[in-house]
Amino acid sequence: FDLGIGDGLHHRRQQLYRTALPAASFATDLPPAVPDPVRYSRRMSTAIVIRPAKPDEMNAVHELVQTIADETFADLFTTRHVPIGEADWLTAWLAIAVNEIVGVTMTRDDWLSDLWVRRDRRRHGIGAKLLAHAEREIGSRGHGTLRLRVVKSNISAVQFYESHGWRVHREFPHEKFGHAMYEMIKPGSSR
Asked: Distance from CA of residue 137 to its chain's centroid?
């Protein structure tokens, strides 16, 4: 399923916001062969670690995305939960703060397919760090243009992307649900 919030964006249940992660989620516990995760702290007292998702975190990530989708897009649907479908989060990158998953991003080919940040952690630079990570990942594949899809009525998301150099390329109706969507693009950085 593709709600078209990114290209298949997803959310999570509120009660699992504070899911405890295994001790191995700390940067110091990563095997030596894995590069140190990038740490961020902007207007936050706790460091943010961006790291790959682990197989035992798939349910927690999915529930996080479901919660954020429900909070953000409830007005577009008559059902209790926004239909997000199932996603394979093994290729996702997570933003971790104090053993909590606070954000997630995922890319596919030249597309930013997902970018979600918990409501209580927005405006702390987490989305910008996840977006920068996703842009680097897409750029490393050699794509000249980066792409994403976003719900047109999600004005704060559209403005967020525009503030990071993205522009609206086209408007179109969502292929399954009919709500207005934007495809946004950004030139890829040359290697």
From this structure: 13
